[in-house]
Design brief:
Layout lengths: L1 H11 L4 H15 L4 H20 L3 H21 L4 H12 L36
Helix pairs in contact: 1-2, 1-4, 1-5, 2-3, 2-5, 3-4
Protein name: Transketolase
Length: 131
Amino acid sequence: MLAAGTALVGAMATDAWQQARTSAVELARRVHPERVPAVEAEPAEVREEVLTAREADDADAENGLAQDWQRKLQRLVRDHPEPARELRRVPDQELAPLVPHRNGPSGPGTVSTATAGDNSTVIQGRDIRFG
């Protein structure tokens, strides 16, 4: 769900934010119809936070927002495994092509895609430590 959370937050800072919002609302409609009003409002709030973070060049704040969405999506998949394929498809096929790579003090943006199968696990990220 790392890619989904990152793509969703990244899309919030671009013209693709309406499509990101629509994808989130459509997913909520299928899984948690009672939560649709909250899901409809939240992307606008997140967009403002992302734009503020980018304006301040605050990568930590933006990463925190992406992590928040990653946790939400992980809980969603844990509680409702059926939308897992959709959660993987939306960031890769709908959102990622709409989000321009960012160039800045930290360098060009990076898009990583991984697929796990047969009970395997993919771990992607920055500063991952084991042990």
